[in-house]
UniProtKB/TrEMBL annotation:
V-ATPase is a heteromultimeric enzyme made up of two complexes: the ATP-hydrolytic V1 complex and the proton translocation V0 complex. The V1 complex consists of three catalytic AB heterodimers that form a heterohexamer, three peripheral stalks each consisting of EG heterodimers, one central rotor including subunits D and F, and the regulatory subunits C and H. The proton translocation complex V0 consists of the proton transport subunit a, a ring of proteolipid subunits c9c'', rotary subunit d, subunits e and f, and two accessory subunits. PANTHER family: V-TYPE PROTON ATPASE SUBUNIT C. It comes from Arctia plantaginis. It comes from the Eukaryota. One of its GO terms (cellular component) is lysosomal membrane. This is V-type proton ATPase subunit C.
Amino acid sequence: MSFSVVIMSEYWVISAPGDKTCQQTWDNLNNATKSGNLSVNYKFPIPDLKVGTLDQLVGLSDDLGKLDTFVEGVTRKVAQYLGEVLEDQRDKLHENLMANNSDLPSYLTRFQWDMAKYPIKQSLRNIADIISKQVGQIDADLKVKSSAYNALKGNLQNLEKKQTGSLLTRNLADLVKKEHFILDSEYLTTLLVIVPKSMFNDWNANYEKITDMIVPRSTQLIYQDNDYGLFTVTLFKKVADEFKHHARERKFVVREFSYNEADLAAGKNEITKLVTDKKKQFGPLVRWLKVNFSECFCAWIHVKALRVFVESVLRYGLPVNFQAVVMVPARKGAKRLRDVLQGLYAHLDHSAHHHATAAQDNAEMAGLGFVTQATCTPLIR
């Protein structure tokens, strides 16, 4: 196997074995892909990391594959949740997904190792552990923050549905007024009744006959939607239960409702409070998601760099001598580019052809220079 490939959406990160100089490797690769404009290439600089022992590299190779998958998963979760939080502004999601104040393609094609976060004097294992701990904490924080915000949003949506749903279920507080009710009476009470539209005439003709002790001509249509009308009826308290029973038999639904101005004001205040709380949380949450998306994405690319380094040393041996490159294949040019790279490096490993053929059968790019490979689909579909 002759060279190393990791696919990232439309980007390939490859590691070509070094010639006399890395610049010569870069020039040869550029010249080979320039013909037919097969790809646009960028150097992918990886610092002089600590190699460690062969056993450490082999063990780390497998672990980095798992870390790659984990970090990618968290990165996607943060991006997806940012889209959910933006709601009506979801079309602006891409412009909110930045990495270290750069758009994602620019960060990748101009990648620079972050020495402050991931000191190269540390062992490869320690660097991987730093990334794992960092992204693990972001994942845990995301669960807490998303749970709290989703609960707030869910409560608000439930209350809003009650303001606009069917008369059978919606909150009636916004539809009634104090003058619709007999209040503070020892004997009389006012009930709210939901009547199907097709039965308005039946209600008006017969509501006084449902039980005894109903106040004549006490009904009033307060509100109607496409299916139902909301009527009042006044009667003696002692026949209220009997009225509800017989009304239900006639397909009239009595809604339980007690007019209390303090309670009604509290209900309206609850919605106002939830709307205010949501607005207060929206800005800080969006900022947190943007910052931590950047942290996750940058960490993800550093994992890619670690994998390139480890697999290149395992593949090409010591001293460390390889050129890492980010390639952007031309549209519909992946197969031709793969063939060109195969031609460039096949002589270094007789098994390369076997792996390239298998990769085509699987409709993927094989790790022609890596023992392992990773495939990354676009962050936002």
